[in-house]
Input
Amino acid sequence: MSHSQINDLPYSQRVVMTGIGLTAPNGNSLADFRDALLNARSGIQPYEIRYFGKTLAGVCDFEVTRHQSRKDARRGTRAGSVGIYCANEALQNSGIDWENTDKSRVGVYIGVTEHGNVETESEIYQIKQFDYDTKYWTHHHNPRTVANNPAGEIALNMGVTGPHYTIGAACAAGNAGIIQAVQMLRLGEVDLAFAGGVSESIHTFGIFAGFASQGALATHEDPTKASRPFDKNRNGIVVAEGGCVYVIERLEDAKRRGAQIIAEIVGYAINTDATDFVLPNAERQAQCMRLALKRAGLAAEQIDIVSTHATGTPNGDILECAAIREVFDHSETTWVNNAKSFIGHSMGAAGALELAGNLPAFADHVVHPTINLDDLDEECALRGLVHGQPREVAKVDYILNNSFGMLGINSALIVKRFV
Output
């Protein structure tokens, strides 16, 4: 098949982001989130959870009832509430005439790391008080814990009658949700998509206990300094909740309605390590970034910002840095940063949320820093690593967003400043 034939296929259609809604531990809008990233405002705080006890977490504080009734919030899930808030905020931000939109041509694609643990743990705790008599088991259990729940709650709340589903992609899920939307738009399955990722992880003691048993849960006397990717004294992950949902549509449709375009999605890749349950593989991560670059038709030198996945685990950070060096070490104009140092690891939301924090750089040409990097681990040294203070640069045209997860799933997403 010739290159010209390939360009005639549906997947050559240009796809853009036209709305964004988010909640992070340090902000409930892109403006607030970006301000926190430029002014070293952490969202990590002391936290206590049943059975596990005192720990640290990135906790969101958004207005649940802005877009959802109290009854629906009680009946549903925390992940559903996060998604509903973000999707409705994204819709408002997009300027779409929702009343006159054909809801059967709208899709909802939401990435999650895990879902159902929160509700199941709580329900078992409650039934224990009744000597495990199942007549006291909630009738809301099944719709709360089915895998499609977060996307389904969004669709139900917004009256979407097109396809909805969640994408289980571990901590690569935020990117994966966006990638799914791009593919479905290019295939002509939908005309509009709500896509991104959500996380309710801080509400399950199993997450904390699991990371603690792996020796991968961060501790620090100052909560705001606990998440410290690349630092020699890093000691693990800070668990966070959060969400970020984008409105995504084909460029021709966005232009037809006069939409304000946030970014164009120009490249992506997902691959698998196939080497270990939890230990990353630098070679596969580098392959993933290279494939995304190839699909975007870009050289590494054209990427202005690499948003790292780095979680603050000793081995994970080292291996990602090795992969980034392999792909970008010869580029003198590629800057590197990390958002988990501010908010912790928001799991299924991480990819979508961390990308959002860098999008304003298309306009202001400022790269937000990595914080808490007091003593750089030599094995994490990267050309262009921005830390401590924001860095003003000459231009930002392309951003590559890394997001990796357990069972060896890797994702890289490239977005472009729309011209």
Q: What stands out?
A: Residues 232 and 377 are 4 Å apart (CA to CA). The longest strand covers residues 263-272. The radius of gyration is 20 Å. The mean pLDDT is 96.
